[in-house]
């Protein structure tokens, strides 16, 4: 067996196992059986005797027992247990590679492993592994075909491998585009591990102290209408009740919003005044929809959304999945609902904080000026720090921040401002979400990380909820150009592969039909239309060229030779010779060694192999002899 064929089998087995391991979802103890792959394929390459059927059967029974134990005791998840079992199977199979069918089992198991891995990860690395797998699988199947024909080594395989790989990629891409998309998962649970949000939460608790660690994990990527400039406050949830230690939301009345004409309308808006945000949200352990303040409309693949009285938007049944959605925010819209008394409530014993607020705002004439005075005071007199210590006995955390340590992070600043505003009669609340983001010039989008989690203040002034942020600006380290480039690749992978949706399918259909729609043709810009048309024409031309090349090769070289060879096999079968579909030309030659047609058959098979697998085209004179030999064999038998 050729060393290349052995190497591809080993690499395919490892590719399937690696695709599962990089998901980070497996129990590595349950994957230890896969380590035997290295020993098994070492023996395979060295030509050692393979395991007996009895040994393989015993190991398979042990693997089944481990699988059942994993399913009901260890993992408690059939899906993950199957993933563990496939790695164990690859380890067992590496010691039992006797027949071509054994190699096909390895290929099938590797494909199954990639299918399982696709359900547990959306990483760009998986896309690279999948492409490598497809190319290796095509090469293995071509090698297997020529090995079966007994012609390996006498035929160049580069051309068929390239053509079949190209055709496979094109057909896979077409199927990817054509398979219908649905707005929700209909069954099963997601096996993607959600990002444990750090900093963002639906509550704020001042019960722990120490150093807060910044997490660079990407939470979302945002394509933003450039008509708006920073700062960007990606609103999540607002909290209204503070008991001296913890913020939480009370009286949260949620209204269900239904889809209307493809969007979830929260309130009517003027298209010329809204800011559009196209957001790609990673699977996080929260069902909140983020966006700029006063979200008027959300377009998302879902059956419903929930909107509460504090302007927070919830996606029911998010299932920890990566989602893509679009938000329209009207930053100038007036607030219809007036705030109630819960936005003025304060814990007992906060008189000192109220007195401080009164002293800072005594000469101010407007609520806006009062809020600005408090905001400026906190920014100028207090120091931002991620390290905090417990307050002295008899003093609350916020009193310690305002009057003693004067050090803290955004939750301390925002809480202090809300309490001071409430102390002078201004309705206010704390808001949790994300602030800012790194602009990636390679893809013209914002990267929002865990470290961008932030708390700020919303105060009801002049009939509107307005944003105030008393936290001093903090300089963050900008990532390298290379890491930004890699992130742009991940963004493209997320946008055009993972996030490929029903709307994208509709857009492709509209683009293909655009040249025939004269009404729409008048409204489009000429250059983008020409560019898209050229791309479509070139793609169609490439597919046509591949099809024509395949037809030419099949008709011009293989059709007559193969048809005559198949007639030869049928003649032998009718004359009583035992010829089955798995026999190669060499096998048939051996089977006819003692027959009366052995000389004709040997010459016929030699010509078949030369004309079918030779590097030179068919010879007309030899083709005449080829058909003559078939007639001689027919008459002789």
Describe the structure.
This protein has 637 residues and is of the alpha+beta class. It has 3 domains: 3-149, no CATH class; 204-482, no CATH class; 547-636, no CATH class. It contains 18 helices and 22 strands. The strands form 5 sheets. Strands 10-13-12-7-8-11-14-9-3-20-19 form an 11-stranded antiparallel sheet, covered by helices on one side. The longest helix is centred in the last third of the chain and has 49 residues, at 526-574. It is elongated. The protein starts with a helix and ends with a helix. The model is unreliable at 184-189 (pLDDT under 50).
Describe the secondary structure blueprint for this structure.
Layout: H1 3-21, H2 36-46, H3 53-74, H4 78-93, H5 100-120, H6 124-149, H7 158-178, E1 204-205, E2 210-211, E3 218-224, E4 233-239, E5 241-242, E6 246-248, E7 254-260, E8 263-265, E9 275-281, E10 288-289, E11 295-300, E12 304-308, E13 313-314, E14 323-329, H8 351-361, H9 367-381, E15 383-384, E16 387-388, H10 397-405, E17 407-408, H11 410-423, E18 428-435, E19 438-440, E20 445-449, E21 453-461, E22 464-468, H12 481-498, H13 502-513, H14 518-521, H15 526-574, H16 585-591, H17 598-613, H18 620-636
Parallel strand pairs: 15-17
Antiparallel strand pairs: 1-6, 2-16, 3-9, 3-20, 4-18, 5-6, 7-8, 7-12, 8-11, 9-14, 10-13, 11-14, 12-13, 18-21, 19-20, 21-22
What general outline do the C-alpha atoms trace? elongated
Number of distinct beta strands: 22
How many helix segments?
18
In total, the number of domains comes to 3
Largest sheet: 11 strands, antiparallel
**Category by helix and strand content:** alpha+beta
Helix content: 40-55%
Distance between the termini: 35 Å
Q: How confident overall, as mean pLDDT?
A: 81
């Amino acid at each position: 067996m050729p060393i290349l064929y052995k190497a591809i089998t080993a690499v395919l087995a490892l590719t399937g196992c690696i695709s599962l391991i990089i998901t980070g979802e497996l129990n590595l103890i349950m994957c230890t059986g896969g380590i035997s792959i290295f020993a098994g394929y070492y023996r395979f390459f060295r030509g050692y005797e393979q395991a007996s059927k009895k040994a393989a059967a015993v190991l398979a029974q042990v693997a089944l027992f481990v699988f059942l134990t994993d399913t009901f005791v260890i993992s408690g998840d059939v899906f993950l247990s199957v993933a563990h079992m496939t790695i164990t199977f690859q380890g067992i199979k590496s010691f039992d590679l006797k027949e071509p069918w054994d190699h096909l089992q390895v290929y099938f198991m590797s494909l199954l492993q990639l299918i399982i891995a696709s359900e547990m990860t959306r990483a760009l690395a998986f896309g690279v592994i999948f492409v490598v797998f497809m190319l290796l699988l095509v090469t293995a199947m071509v090698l297997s075909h020529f090995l079966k024909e007994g012609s390996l080594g006498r035929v160049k395989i580069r051309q068929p491998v390239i053509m079949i790989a190209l055709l496979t990629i094109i057909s896979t891409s077409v199927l990817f585009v054509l398979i219908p998309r649905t707005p929700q998962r209909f069954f099963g649970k997601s096996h993607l591990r959600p990002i444990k949000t750090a900093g963002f939460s639906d509550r704020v608790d001042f019960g722990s102290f120490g150093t807060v660690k910044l997490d660079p994990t990407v939470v979302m990527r945002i394509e933003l209408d450039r008509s708006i400039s920073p700062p960007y406050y990606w609103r999540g949830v607002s909290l209204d009740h503070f008991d001296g230690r913890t913020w939480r939301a009370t009286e949260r009345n949620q209204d269900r919003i239904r889809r209307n004409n493809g969007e979830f309308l929260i309130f009517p808006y003027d298209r010329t005044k809204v800011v559009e945000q196209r957001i790609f949200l990673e699977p996080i352990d929260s069902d909140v929809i983020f966006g700029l303040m006063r979200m008027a409309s959300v377009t998302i693949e879902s059956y419903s959304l929930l909107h509460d009285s504090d302007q927070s938007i919830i996606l029911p049944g998010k299932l920890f999945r990566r989602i893509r959605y679009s938000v329209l925010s009207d930053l100038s819209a007036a607030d219809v609902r007036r705030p109630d008394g819960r936005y003025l409530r304060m814990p007992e014993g906060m008189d000192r904080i109220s007195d401080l607020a009164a002293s800072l705002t005594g000469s101010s004439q407007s609520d806006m000026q009062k809020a600005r005075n408090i905001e400026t005071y906190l920014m100028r007199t207090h120091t931002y720090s991620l390290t905090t210590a417990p307050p002295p006995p008899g003093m609350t955390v916020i009193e310690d921040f305002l009057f003693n340590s004067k050090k803290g992070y955004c939750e301390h600043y925002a809480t202090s401002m809300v309490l001071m505003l409430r102390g002078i009669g201004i309705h206010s609340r704390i808001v949790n979400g994300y602030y800012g983001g790194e602009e990636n010039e390679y893809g013209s989008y914002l990267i929002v990380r865990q470290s961008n989690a932030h708390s700020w203040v919303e105060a009801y002034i002049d009939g509107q909820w307005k944003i105030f942020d008393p936290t001093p600006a903090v300089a963050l380290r900008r990532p390298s150009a290379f890491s930004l480039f890699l992130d742009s690749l991940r963004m493209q992978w997320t946008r055009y592969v993972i996030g490929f949706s029903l709307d994208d399918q509709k857009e492709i259909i509209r683009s293909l039909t655009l040249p025939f729609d004269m009404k729409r043709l008048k409204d489009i810009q000429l250059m983008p239309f020409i560019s898209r048309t050229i791309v479509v024409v070139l793609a169609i031309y490439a597919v046509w060229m591949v099809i024509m090349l395949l037809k030419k090769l099949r008709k011009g070289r293989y059709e007559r030779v193969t048809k005559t060879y198949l007639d030869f096999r049928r003649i032998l079968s009718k004359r009583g010779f035992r010829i089955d579909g798995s026999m190669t030309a060499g096998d048939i030659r051996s089977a006819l060694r003692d027959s009366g047609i052995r000389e004709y058959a040997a010459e016929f098979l030699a010509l078949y192999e030369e004309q079918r697998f030779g590097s030179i085209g068919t010879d007309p004179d030899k083709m005449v002899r080829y058909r003559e030999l078939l007639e001689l064999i027919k008459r002789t038998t």
